[in-house]
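Reviewer comment 2.1 asked that we show a complete input and output for one of the modelled complexes. We chose the zinc ion case, as it is the one discussed in the main text.
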Amino acid sequence: MPRSMKSRFRASGSALRVIHHLRAPHLMGRVHILCYHRIGADDESDSLTMPRWLFEQQMALLHRDYRPLSLGAAVACLAQQCPLPPRAVVVTFDDGYEDTFTRALPVLQRWEIPATVFVTTGYVDGLSSLAWRLKVPMLSWSMVRELAQAGLDIGSHTLTHPELAQLSFREAEEELVSSKHRLEDVVQQRVDLLAYPYGHVRSFDEETQRLVMEAGYRAAVTTVPGSNGSGTNRLALHRLTPSRRDVAALAMQLAELPLDRGLAAALTYGVRRKWAPVHVAAAA
Ligand SMILES: [Zn+2]
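Response of the prediction step:
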């Protein structure tokens, strides 16, 4: 850990450790999966964009106080009912934005955080055409290959980012199978993890899950909030969207403590005072 960040962690450590001690006992043996989309410039923050300085602090926190696992390792543990380490956490990225490569990867490498990138294959080498966003550059195929070579897991986010449950059987199957095969061709590894586009309860149903299983996926993640244990349906795993408020808010989320209560506000205030934004030299 860089020295400047070490001292900031020490300064903020007591408040964050209080949060850990408040972590609910029912979270033992469970894993939280975090869902990121874009990593923005330091002054860039919106509902899909985490500013880089805060992402850096969040990854430093996971490195220090949690047990980051790859999604594949966590799923294997859930399937075999082997014990998960305390404070197990998984980092994932949806859609396949170029900044996953240019901004997230250097931070993940610095803090030794494994991660999974869910790529919408029809957007690769182009601009996002997601209707609610300005057009932003997406990963290139060479970046997808380099992410895999860097040790990140590559998963599918379908071909065109539809709500799978709204498609015909044949269309949904095409979305699941073609994206999987294209990614496997590029990364030369088995691709068996899926993130449902949108991920809310209406975007996938039992029929969708059957198609996902038949297409050869072993696990699929949603955006339905919560943690995951051995009893969780592995074709409908829960994820959390990390708070963009500050690093203490993420600790509160991982402890499943309410973000809006007075206790949270008091703890967060203590941390916020001691945590100036950490600006790290831009990788790109
Ligand atoms: Zn998406």
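The first strand starts at residue 31 and ends at 36. We note this here for comparison with the apo prediction described in Section 3.2.
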